[in-house]
Amino acid sequence: MSPAVGTRSGDRRRRSSEGDKERNQAAVIEEERLLRGVEENEGVPYRCHVLRFVLAFFVLLSFFALVLWGASRTQKPRITMKSITFESFFVHAGVDASNVPTGMATLNSTVEFTYRNTGSFFAVDVTSTPLSLNYYGITVASGNMSHFHQSKQSQRVLNVVVMGKQVALYGGGPGVSGTGPVNMTLSFTVRSKAYVLGKVVKSKFHDDVRCSVVMDRTELGRAVSLKNSCR
Length: 231
Fold this sequence. Notes:
The protein has one helix at 3-73, and strands at residues 78-95, 101-117, 124-128, 131-135, 138-143, 148-150, 154-168, 182-197, 201-215, 223-225. The chain is an alpha+beta fold.
């Protein structure tokens, strides 16, 4: 074989090898491009699915919370006034902080009532405004109920001391200095906060209590029923 023939044959093999190499590289590049395209096309729907799931979850949670809140509004706490006991009541002459002469009243009493949480699926935290005994617009005694937590469908009996010491009456109304019955008004507001769905969903209830009370000084120490005296 002549040198020229060998050279031409070697050139053809090199060109063929280089062509195969270029075709292989092109195939690899095309395959990588196709793979990237598939990943990109698959990535968009996946993110959309995640977003749809999150939105659906919050919609369902909001709907569920709204249903629970609506159900809780029909399960209001129940307050039953039982009695008030006047332990002592004194009226004597005195002077107020400005040295103005007036009648001074000292009263000691205990109010008993029942609090019931009717909620079937939630507990409540309960507070109250001061219990006030008023005589012709003058608060002659008051007392504070302690904060408490009441579990679902349960109740408790509360006894609150309502008292006043050296309260200026400034003339007050008729009969306060005598020996006959004295008409008073007992009033307070009970506030209940229900945790329907943890701290996410809460319901609030306000119960205003107002009772007409007659204090008979001849029956001190006896419980006076409030069964039909409150609203």
